[in-house]
Structures are given as structure tokens and as C-alpha cells.
Design a protein that fits this description.
Layout lengths: L26 H10 L8 E2 L5 E4 L3 H7 L1 H11 L3 H19 L15 H19 L10 H17 L4 H4 L1 E5 L8 H4 L2 H7 L4 E6 L11 H8 L4 H8 L5 H8 L6 H20 L6 H10 L10 E4 L2 E5 L3 H22 L5 H11 L11 E3 L5 E4 L9 H5 L5 E2 L8 E7 L2 E11 L35 E6 L5 H11 L9 E7 L5 H6 L4 H6 L1 E9 L1 H52 L1
Antiparallel strand pairs: 1-2, 2-4, 3-4, 5-6, 6-11, 7-8, 9-11, 10-11, 10-12, 11-13, 13-14
């Protein structure tokens, strides 16, 4: 089937209405009701286990959906249409069959159905745009035909560069988990869908998958051209391109192909978010990280509640949420400033990206949790206030005292822990007033009526909340005992446990008598943190860096203006001299 046949307008399928279920209204109204109850927007379902459910999509629809990117690809390749259809069309169709509905990332760029296919096309387009802007390859003195081979090489690299994610990053199965897609053996996800007559697939992201797919490029290249080895041989064995391919395939960090791919990949990620796929609202974004189990919930400081979590302030749990929060605004700020459709901004971006050092470990490039380069020099980005940004979301629960953080008493296994922190809500069906209250006290002899009546013993229960004044005497005593007086600023007592069998009521009644209250506390359980001080100092460092960069920019601007004035003056003088010569 010709590629451009996909570009023709597609008629939507008619919606049938069962006569037996028709309501007594006219037929047109019945059709309107039926069509109004069909979900037409792209969506995905996240299960309680963290898996994502995507509805299957035909290859025709997938290619039609990305027709503008394909047209852009043809425009930059500058192939005759018959050559494009003969050479590139089969590669696009093969790529679509391999990727099918697979997403490119878990929660950021191209995370929707078919995102991996779209991202691969996008990187191919940006690779060719980079080639038009950069003059890195001019020194090889390529002939017109060799230059076409170079372009085609970039298309092939872009198409294949992320395919190994189907093996290393993604676990794709049928809804009942009976059949799991094996990329190395089956290659084509679309064939897997047809073989098992799947209407939807379950997609899981492998935790700790840091850049593993990059080391599998050669394997993916062999799989992609398994039945057409002669095609890739034409590219890789070309005398002038062979050294470039060789350095790239052996993983040389100085490979020009690799650096070129990195620039195009960064550019495609940002341009995709900017043009096609706006970021989640911050509350929903953070929720998605919990739903997909991107955040490690085993870290200290996560206390599981009914409908959400209680987060200990300054704990490892808080730090990991804060890291993702900062990452969100780093990327969002960059994307807002990024203008993918202007040649000038793209040229500037390519020049900036050439500052990438050969070794990632020593570079200023920052990796987000999806392992894509999202920008240079993380330290100069403005920081959003965490609690202020989340106040109006359905993620952070503000206490009755209008405070984000407060000391709360939480109960599990008969032990009361006093923790300074905040509550986040993940279950939209859970009422805020019920959040954290799920422990059902039952007589031992009473058998539960159903599974829903069995208390979840992994949950903590919030049994009390305190004003700072309520615990002032206790906290002051603990600070004197555990925090050096010289280091008191920025340090905080974030949690402590009561001794076994001591109830919250007993502790509350003892608060007026400091000696008694302290005797009820397990002093070995007291946790002290200075993370607030670390963050404050880091924020000050950011401000200093930003101010310095602003001053440098102003100096550069003044210098450029002075040079421009001098140029204009010299130009005017030369024009006057020319006029005199004329006379």
C-alpha cells in the first residue's frame, strides 16, 4: 500500500444503535446520544498495579495520525516522491508495525498511545533539520549522492535509536497477562496484537531502567534490517560514511553521529511537548508518578493511609517528591521558552547543545527520570515554592489549621508515631474527611463478613493533629537534647515514636507535665533533619548564579550594542567616502 494513500481523508465509521434498546425519541436524536457517549479523545487507563492500558490502533490509523511529520520528513529529505515511496515508505511502515501503540516514555514526552512511533519520526525530522543548520559534516566533502546517503543514515538511526525500549524498558502483555510480547523473537508488536486478537494491551515500565536501551542499538539495527541486510550495507559500507558508522556502532562517545543524535533527540522531546503534548497540571503529574510506581514508595518517610500517603517532612520520601517537582518546572520552563518553529532559536539551540562534553558523567546535562536530556545547567532554573504551587491542587491536603505541614499522631500495630509532615491524596473517590482513617477495631472472635471488611494492616491511621504550641515544650526539649545550639537554625525534629502500648490519649494528657511526656517517648526513635537548611542554601546559590549570569548577559548586550554602533558609524563613513569618490 502506498504511503500517501494514508493521507487521504478518512470517513468515520457510523454508529449503530440497537433497535431493541432504542428510547422513544426520534432516530436522529438517538444517533446524537450514541455519538455523544463515545470517547473520541486520546486517553490511557492506569491500573492499581501501576500498569497502563492502551487501546489497540491499526497501522493505517497510526500513520495517518502522524502524516504531517511524514510530510515534513519528505520535505527535508528532498527525495523525489517515487524514491520516497520506494525507499522510505517501507521503513516507515516497518517502524509502525514494530512500535504500534507503545508509548515513548512513562509520563513526559510522547507518553500517549503510539508515542514511540511519533517520537522516532520526530527525531528523524529534527536530525535532518540539524544537518541543514550545522556544518560539522562539510569537512568530509560529500558528493550529492553521498549527502543523500548521510541523510538516509540519520533517518535510519532515528528510527532505530529507541526501539530497544520494547525489550529493556517496557513489558507489554495482553490484559489477562497470559501472553507477553517478546521483542527479540517477535519484533512486530502489531503482529502480536493480531495473533492474540487483542483489543487493548497492558504496558508496564521496568524500574531502574537507566539508559539500558542505548547499549542495545546494534541489536535493534540487525532486527530492523533482518530481511534487508543489503539496504543497511549500502549505508554502512560507503567509503566516506563507513568510519562515521563504525565509531557510532562501537559506542564511541566522540562519534559525530552520536552527538548529532543527542541534539536531535533533545530537540524532538522539547518540540513535542511544546507543539503536541502539553504537560500535566503539577498535581496530576505527581499523581501519575505514584500510579505508575515511578516513585519508590519503600523510601523512609512514606506512611501509607487510606486514599493517600502521609509524607514526613525532610525525609527521603519528601526529597524524591521534591526532585520530581523541581524536574517538572525545569522542563516546563525550558519548553515555554523553546520556540521550535523559528530557525534562529533552533540554531542557537544546536550551538548550545554542542557544549555537551564527551562523557555524560562530567557534563552539565541533567537527566530526568525518563532518562532524556532536558537541559543545560539545572542550577540556574527558578525554583517554584513546593507548598504554594500545590495548594490549589487535588494532591496536597491542607489541614484544618490552614497549614500544609503539621505534627500528626499516626497509629500502626499499636505504636503511635508523632510525625511532622503533610498528607497527599491519591484516591479521588476517598472523601477528604475519611483520608487516613481505615483501621477498623473488631473483636478477635468476630469474623469479617467480606474481604472489604478485613482491615488493611499495612495502613497507618491518623489519630490526632497538633498545633506547634501543643508540642512546644516537648519539641524544645528534644531540640536541646539532639541538636547542637550552634546548628539549631534549619534543623527540625521530624518524628519520634511513643513507647509501646502508650496511647495518643495518654501522651496528650501528659503534655502539661514535660517530665512525664518525655518519659513516654522512645528517645532512640527521634529523627532530626537539616534538609530545609540544605535547600535554603541551595536556593541562595541558585539566586547568586542567576544574578551573575544576568550581569554577564547585560555586559554582553552592552558590548554588542557598542560594536553595532561602531559598525553603523564605520558604514556611514564609508558611504560618505564613496559619495565623494563618485563626485
Amino acid at each position: 500500500m502506498g504511503l500517501f494513500s494514508f493521507f487521504k481523508s478518512k470517513s468515520t465509521s457510523s454508529i449503530g444503535v440497537d433497535n431493541a434498546q432504542k428510547s422513544p425519541i426520534d432516530e436522529q436524536e438517538s444517533l446524537n446520544v450514541a455519538s455523544d457517549n463515545v470517547l473520541t479523545e486520546e486517553c490511557k487507563v492506569i491500573t492499581s498495579s501501576g500498569a497502563t492500558i492502551f487501546k489497540v490502533q491499526s497501522i493505517d490509523d497510526l500513520i495517518f495520525k502522524n502524516r504531517l511529520l511524514i510530510e515534513e520528513l519528505q520535505l527535508h529529505l528532498k527525495f523525489f516522491e517515487e524514491d520516497f515511496i520506494r525507499v522510505v515508505n517501507p521503513l516507515i511502515i516497518k517502524l509502525a508495525r514494530i512500535c504500534s501503540i507503545a508509548p515513548a516514555s512513562q509520563a513526559l514526552h510522547d507518553h500517549e498511545r503510539g508515542g514511540l512511533f511519533k517520537h522516532s519520526l520526530f527525531v528523524a525530522v529534527k536530525s535532518l533539520e540539524t544537518l541543514e543548520t550545522s556544518h560539522v559534516f562539510d569537512k568530509f566533502q560529500l558528493s550529492p549522492s553521498e549527502h543523500q546517503f548521510l541523510k538516509l543514515s540519520f533517518v535510519v538511526i532515528a528510527f532505530v535509536h529507541d526501539l530497544a525500549k520494547l525489550d529493556t524498558d517496557l513489558r507489554i502483555s495482553t490484559l489477562g497477562d497470559k501472553y507477553t510480547f517478546n521483542y527479540k523473537n517477535e519484533i512486530f508488536l502489531d503482529d502480536f496484537i493480531k495473533k492474540h486478537q487483542a483489543t487493548a494491551l497492558k504496558v508496564r515500565f521496568v524500574p531502574g531502567r537507566h539508559q539500558v536501551h542505548n547499549s542495545k542499538f546494534f541489536t535493534s539495527l540487525k532486527l530492523f534490517f533482518k530481511d534487508s541486510k543489503a539496504f543497511i550495507d549500502v549505508l554502512t559500507q560507503n567509503p566516506k560514511l563507513k568510519p562515521l558508522w563504525y565509531n557510532f556502532l562501537k559506542g564511541d562517545a566522540k562519534s559525530l553521529f552520536l552527538k548529532h543524535l543527542r541534539v536531535a533527540d533533545i530537540y524532538a522531546c522539547k518540540a513535542s511537548i511544546n507543539t503536541y503534548n502539553s504537560m500535566y497540571e503539577i498535581g496530576n503529574y505527581l499523581k501519575s508518578l505514584f500510579y505508575t510506581q515511578t516513585i519508590d514508595l519503600s523510601l523512609p518517610g512514606f506512611y501509607k493511609l487510606k486514599g493517600g500517603y502521609f509524607i514526613e517532612h525532610c525525609s527521603e520520601a519528601y526529597k524524591t517528591i521534591l526532585e520530581h517537582f523541581d524536574n517538572y518546572f525545569i522542563l516546563l520552563d525550558e519548553v515555554k521558552e523553546f520556540k521550535p518553529n523559528t530557525r534562529l532559536s533552533f540554531k542557537h539551540y544546536c550551538l548550545t547543545s554542542e557544549q555537551l562534553k564527551d562523557e555524560d558523567a562530567n557534563s552539565n546535562v541533567y537527566h530526568d527520570y525518563n532518562h532524556h536530556y532536558i537541559g543545560l545547567n539545572k542550577s540556574i532554573t527558578n525554583r517554584e515554592p513546593f507548598f504554594r504551587a500545590l495548594t490549589n491542587t487535588n494532591f496536597l491536603i491542607i489541614s484544618a489549621y490552614k497549614m500544609s505541614c503539621a505534627y500528626r499522631a499516626i497509629l500502626k500495630d499499636g505504636v503511635v508515631t508523632i510525625v511532622y509532615g503533610f498528607v497527599i491524596k491519591l484516591d479521588d473517590e476517598c472523601d477528604v474527611n475519611e483520608l487516613g482513617f481505615d483501621i477498623k477495631v473488631q473483636p478477635i472472635t468476630e469474623r469479617p463478613q467480606s474481604n472489604s471488611d478485613i482491615p488493611d494492616m499495612s495502613l497507618y491511621c491518623i489519630v490526632g493533629e497538633y498545633f506547634d504550641a501543643d508540642l512546644k515544650k516537648v519539641i524544645t526539649y528534644l531540640e536541646k537534647k539532639f541538636i547542637n545550639a550552634e546548628k539549631k537554625k534549619g534543623y527540625r525534629i521530624t518524628s519520634f515514636k511513643l513507647k509501646s502500648q502508650i496511647s495518643k490519649i495518654e501522651f496528650n494528657q501528659s503534655l502539661d507535665d514535660l517530665e512525664t511526656a518525655i518519659s513516654l517517648i522512645d528517645l532512640d526513635s527521634v529523627v532530626v533533619s537539616d534538609f530545609s537548611l540544605e535547600r535554603e542554601l541551595d536556593s541562595k546559590d541558585r539566586t547568586k548564579i542567576k544574578q551573575r549570569l544576568k550581569r554577564e548577559h547585560q555586559r554582553e548586550l552592552k558590548q554588542q550594542m557598542a560594536e553595532n554602533d561602531l559598525y553603523q558609524e564605520q558604514l556611514a563613513k564609508s558611504l560618505n567616502e564613496d559619495d565623494m569618490d563618485f563626485y
